[in-house]
Amino acid sequence: MPHALALADLVIGRAGATTLADLELPAVLVPLPASVSRGDQLDNARLRRSAPRSAAASSPTSS
Fold first, then answer.
1. Which of 12, 17, 56, 63 is surrounded by the fewest CB atoms within 10 Å?
2. What are the two backbone dihedrals, phi and then psi, of residue 27, each rounded to the nearest 5 degrees?
3. Pairing of strands 11-13, 54-56
4. Close Cβ partners of 38 (under 8 Å, ≥ 6 residues apart)
5. Range 33-42 contact pairs with CB under 8 angstroms and sequence separation of 24 or more
6. Are 29 and 15 in contact (CB under 8 A)?
7. pLDDT tens-digit profile of 17-28?
8. DSSP sequence for 1-63
9. CB-based contacts of 5, cutoff 8 Å, min separation 6
10. Spatial distance between the Cα atoms of 15 and 55, rounded to a whole number of angstroms
């Protein structure tokens, strides 16, 4: 994965803690909905959304 990230200009991925710890790039985060997770990815995405060059998308089944 580090090689792929080194070549990337933008990351689209889940908002898990490990993903966020490795990210230093602009990102579009798609968290797992709270109905199938503890809700931590939603919290992570909201926190990261406030960072420069980041966005968070809602999963279709999340509210």
1. 63
2. -145, 150
3. unpaired
4. none
5. 33/59, 33/61, 33/62, 34/62, 35/61, 35/62, 36/61, 40/16, 41/14, 41/15, 41/16, 42/15
6. yes
7. 988 888 888 888
8. -HHHHHH-S-EEE---HHHHHH--S-EEE-PPPGGGS-SHHHHHHHHHHTSTTEEE---TT--
9. 11, 22, 23, 25
10. 11
